[in-house]
Amino acid sequence: MKEFTLYLYQKIWGATVFRVPHMLVFAFLLCLISSSGVLAHGVDASTERFLLANEGVAIGPFLYIGAKHMLTGYDHLLFLIGVIFFLFRKREVLLYVSLFTAGHSITLLLGVLNNIALNPYLIDAIIGLSIVYKGFDNLGGFNRLLGFQPNTKVAVAIFGLFHGFGLATKIQDFALPQTGLWKNLLAFNVGVELGQFVALVFILIGLSFWRRHRSFYLFSTMTNTLLMTGGLILFGYQMVGYSVTS
Questions:
Q1: Residue 143 and residue 88 in contact, taking contact as beta carbons nearer than 8 Å
Q2: Residue 147 near residue 100, CB atoms below 8 Å
Q3: In terms of pLDDT, which residue wins out, 201 or 20?
Q4: Contact residues for 218 (Cβ-Cβ < 8 A; gap 6+)
Q5: Residue 66: which of 185, 191, 168 has the closest Cα?
Q6: pLDDT above 90 covers what percent of the chain?
Q7: What's this model's pTM, rounded to 2 decimal places?
Q8: 8 Å CB contact between 29 and 233
Q9: Are 197 and 72 a contacting pair, CB within 8 Å?
Q10: Are the C-beta atoms of 183 and 57 separated by less than 8 Å?
Q11: What is the DSSP letter of 174?
C-alpha cells in the first residue's frame, strides 16, 4: 500500500520518493496500527459494557456516547479533515459538514431501527476508502490521472451514509432493548453533532492558524498523502479481517 501511495505521489506531482518525509509517514502508520479503538470503529470496552447492560431510555449516557464516538472516532475525523482541508469559507464548511451529518444520521437511525446490517469488516473497509478518496481528491488525482472530477458534495453525502451505516452495524451487535430505542438513538445522534462541533472548532482553529504560513501549501501534498495512506491501512486491515473470518 505504501508503494502504491508513493507511486500516486510521483504520478501526480512528478516528485521523487526521497521528498516524502518517511519518518512522519511511518509514525502516522504506527499510530493507526497500534490503536485498536480506531480499527474497531470507536466502540470501546466501557461503551460496550454500558450498551450491554442498559435497559430503557438513557438520554444523558447516549448523548455522552455519541459525543465520545465522534471525538475518538479517528476514521470520522480523518475524513472530515480531508473534507474541509481546502474549504476556506464558513458557508462551504457548514454545507459539506451538514451533508456528511445528514448521511451519517439517516443510515444510523434506519439501520438500527429496521435491523439492517452488513458485514462490519466490509462496511469499515468502505469507510477506509472514503478517507483515501478525500486525500486523492485534494491532491487533484481525479483530474490528473483519470481525467474527470466527481461531484464532491454528492460524494461526501454518500460516504456519510456509509459512515453511519458502519456504526449502525456495530450497535446492532449489542441487541439494544426496543423500549425507548428511538429516543436513545436520537440522543446518540445529538451527541454525535455536539462532538462533531467541538472537533471541528479545534480543527478549524488549527487549519486557520496553519493557513497563515507558507508551510500549509508546502506540506499540503504530504498531509493529503498521509490521509490516503491512513485510509489504505484501515481498508487493508478490514479486508484482512474479512478474509480471516469468512
A1: no
A2: no
A3: 201
A4: none
A5: 191
A6: 37
A7: 0.79
A8: yes
A9: no
A10: yes
A11: T
